[in-house]
From TrEMBL:
The lineage of its organism: Eukaryota, Viridiplantae, Streptophyta, Embryophyta, Tracheophyta. The keyword tRNA processing does not apply. One of its GO terms (molecular function) is metal ion binding. One of its GO terms (biological process) is monoatomic ion transport. It is found in: Membrane. One of its GO terms (cellular component) is membrane. It comes from the Eukaryota. This is HMA domain-containing protein. The chain crosses the membrane at residues 244-266, 278-300, 312-334, 340-359, 495-520, 540-561, 877-900, 906-926. Its main location: membrane. PANTHER family: COPPER-TRANSPORTING ATPASE RAN1, P-TYPE CATION-TRANSPORTING ATPASE. Residues 1-58, 74-140, 148-214 form the HMA domain.
Amino acid sequence: MTCSACTSAVEAAVSARPGVRRVAVSLLQNRAHVVFDPALAKVDDIIEAIEDAGFEAEIIPDSAVSQPKSQKTLSAQFRIGGMTCANCVNSVEGILKKLPGVQGAVVALATSLGEVEYVPSAISKDEIVQAIEDAGFEAAFLQSSEQDKILLGLVGLHTERDVEVLHDILKKVDGLRQFDVNTDLSEVEIVFDPEAVGLRSIVDTIEMGSNGRLKAHVQNPYTRGASNDAQEASKMLNLLRSSLFLSIPVFFIRMCPSIPFLRTLLSMHCGPFLMGDLLKWILVSIVQFVVGKRFYVAAYRALRHGSTNMDVLVVLGTTASYVYSVCALLYGAFTGYRPPVYFETSAMIITFVLFGKYLEVLAKGKTSDAIKKLVELVPSTALLVLKDKEGKHVGEREIDAMLVQPGDVLKVLPGSKVPADGVVVWGTSHVNESMITGESAPIPKEVSSVVIGGTINLHGSLHIQATKVGSGTVLSQIISLVETAQMSKAPIQKFADYVASIFVPIVITLSVVTFCVWFLCGWLGAYPNSWVAENSNCFVFSLMFAISVVVIACPCALGLATPTAVMVATGIGANHGVLVKGGDALERAQNVNYVVFDKTGTLTQGKAVVTTAKVFSGMDLGDFLTLVASAEASSEHPLAKAVLDYAFHFHFFGKLPSSKDGIEQRKDEVLSKWLLEAEDFSAVPGKGVQCSIDGKHVLVGNRTLVTENGVTIPPEAESFLVDLESNAKTGILVAYDGEFVGLMGITDPLKREAAVVVEGLKKLGVHPVMLTGDNWRTAEAVAKEVGIEDVRAGVMPAGKADVVRSLQKDGSVVAMVGDGINDSPALAAADVGMAIGGGTDIAIEAADYVLVRNNLEDVITAIDLSRKTFSRIRWNYFFAMAYNVVAIPIAAGALFPFTGLQMPPWLAGACMAFSSVSVVCSSLLLRRYRKPRLTTVLQITVE
């Protein structure tokens, strides 16, 4: 399954089977939960229904442990050249999806990339490349999700002897499964077992085995892609120069016959032909069939697969003009009557179209600047710290950053970039993490601090131990998210794809109708002869209108309207710490009606602290805290940690070393001696914990836990508890041996921006809602503090998704902002899930947006960016549609009877070329986006 349409198809197919009561399909988990009557349906029937719908299915055992798939699926990225409009994209996607073993394919026009999900045992990447090339496009493999395959570039691979040496070296490497040397590109593709041999070892072995003659380096797919973009632009520029060089003389011959010298020269006879006509024929033939060869090739590919595109229109228009001119020239040569020729029309059309395409290539390159900037954050080299067997520092070595392996210790000098995610093992410094988190203030780093690859070390030297490298780093995951978003299609694009698929046939029909109407009217004498230009005739007059209609129509603008805007927007979002997972998420966010906030860790800082402790029995406060800490010591709940820290500092404040390491070591030593032994410990979800200490039952939790166990809360304790809850604090009640002992007040401070963000959302017309498992009194106090009127308290984790669905019942679009594992069902259920970047991996996986900076202001940024993007997309569609609606009638001569305005075909070609460029440039205006300032949103004037 690849999208929500797939889940709907599976649900519909399974629901249609008799005996099926209920089916729920999860796209994220690739699972379907089916409730059925075994008397009416069998498991095999359900599998058959799913497979009939075009998907694969297998049973997951009752243990809920997924069995490995019989066929491993890979996701690979290919660069596809030669695509010019949405029809090309649809054609390539259609061809790929029909290939055996291909489970899904998405092609992006703006990036010239295709992402194919396939079963490698059924089809290889070379066969996929071959299929794309057979369809008439250019294709090259870039990268795949297979972790043990890599492409190495080689320096020094010149002769057959060098190739033999390389073969001998690689054959001896343990763990190297296979390799394929490409001598033309000086590359070797290797498949290896990363558990048996490291990539750096392979590179070192090649260099040492060849005595330094051969040097290997990892090919960066992004650098390769940028190189291809530059080659495409260079290729287009060369074609444009050639076309311009040949077309200018043709245009000059046409426009400057009044110069005596030229008139004499061009009027000379060369056989039956005039010198001027012969020169134009020769020059334009080169433009038409040599420079313009790419249009013929692309048009042939499209027509062979039953589709049409812009190249078909260009070929039809220029060929009609060229063929007519040749026929007219030959007719004049043999009859003596010389009708006008229009060679310059086809030459100028091709020149202007190439100029437009060149500008388009340059502009489309700008849309992916965000990816390029992110890739450039990764340093090219790293300084590896060499150690002997005893772990002593023996030296340093500069290596390619792509050869860093987990566990390597790397030296990071002041002013240099951190090469990989890791942990500081020596040194102290400050690191600028603004490029990743957006946080401008330098972050202090010391031993055990986590560092992120791509960030800049500012002051002292650091030794870091790499924990995540390659695709596992934070920066790589951000790049991957942005790439995935840029590959995705927004639902609004379906309309453009449909229009593009029928656009060219409609234009050709209009062109034929235009010709027939003008020709028949002229033949019947419906318009005066004065309308027809001198030395022309009714046929030529009508043909020029028809060619202009074909040439001026542009399906490319429609195809580029959405993907270019989505590309720019996702890149801009990444620069502002807002990662969007796809165009569909971007589209939904513009219409958000409700934003549901989880309380703990989202509206609050997620760091609970005990503010008060009060005993309502004869127990000493120290003994009370020891009792509570002993009960909570086995719990992993954040509140339990707050209780334990409070009790620990009460007993040992001022009695511990001042250094951080000393405190932690001493704390571990005293905990076992200080705490009482707790037996029969159990956590009661949503209520608290219970255990036995000294043979007596201990309860630590909320009011519900205590009262359910028959413990009476004294009136003065109840009054104190109500007062705590009214001040946005959570009360922890403690009972010992069936008697109420005391309670503690815990608070989780609000994030400083929470109240302002809530007010800002209201100004944007969005209704904020707070969701929490806390009691009503505490929840209402917190909500009052941040300005939220709609509160849902006492909600268990499983019920959060139900609250989201209840808000969606009237068709409202709901966004959910959360950070924890218990928020993931609600994030998945919401129309737009927003995970706070500091949250859990599960929450981030379930969300549509990731707010990297852990700042609530980015919720407003996400909604505002979505609205600005789709406002731009709507303008793009308006311009693209308006251009064709207005331009085609003008080209067809609708204004000619009233104004005498006739659009020459070469001018129509220029207009068509600039229409797609204008749409791309319109999308590029999004690069000027600035995140909304809260003072502006709240309409606050700052003096």
